[in-house]
């Protein structure tokens, strides 16, 4: 008894791969599914293909009348006509559009929120190559996290999902309850307050560690300040800003 174990993105793909290897039709085999395909966690982690086992059936030896010369001339090998070539299948597949990156990213955000026990809605705003996803719903503090750390992590993963399906790079921004704008105003106020402190005490002020995005806001706010300058020191994730008197 001949058996063959093959894999593919879907069960149908796995079966086709096996049939193509043996150059037989599906009625010549029995199929046993060993493993169904899995997208893994949020479609990113632990992705598994489908795996099937094909068993080749014994070919019945039925007597057949001898074909006439005319019929024999017109006939074609059954094995070759039964299965399309792999190249033909690839050409057909090439004309099919892949998943939409924005739809996949939106679905990922919703699935991630459900994994946290939340039901949310996502609205999308696109401007050139920048796509902003606004999340709305109850208890969004869980998605935002302390100082936006959970939101930043979700934004990073969403960027991976979107750019996995996009033909060109997309800049992804995640927001919830206008957190990004509120956080920017908070950091700008902090920058002004600590700059005044540095000038008043004639002493450098070292801020707590911040993300690159937050440090960029502080640098931009104090860039034109007449009495102080800023620079960063340390290594991620403990890199921080120093406000120094000129």
From TrEMBL:
Coiled coil: none annotated. GO terms for molecular function: RNA binding. It comes from the Bacteria. InterPro entries: Jag_KH (IPR038008), Jag_N_dom_sf (IPR038247), KH_dom-like_a/b (IPR015946), KhpB (IPR039247), KhpB_N (IPR032782), R3H_dom (IPR001374), R3H_dom_sf (IPR036867), R3H_KhpB (IPR034079). Keywords: Cell shape, Cell wall biogenesis/degradation, Chaperone, Cytoplasm, RNA-binding. Residues 61-81 are annotated as: Disordered. It holds the Pfam family Jag_N. Residues 5-55 are annotated as: Jag_N domain. Belongs to the KhpB RNA-binding protein family. Has an N-terminal Jag-N domain and 2 RNA-binding domains (KH and R3H). This is RNA-binding protein KhpB. It comes from Paenibacillus thiaminolyticus.
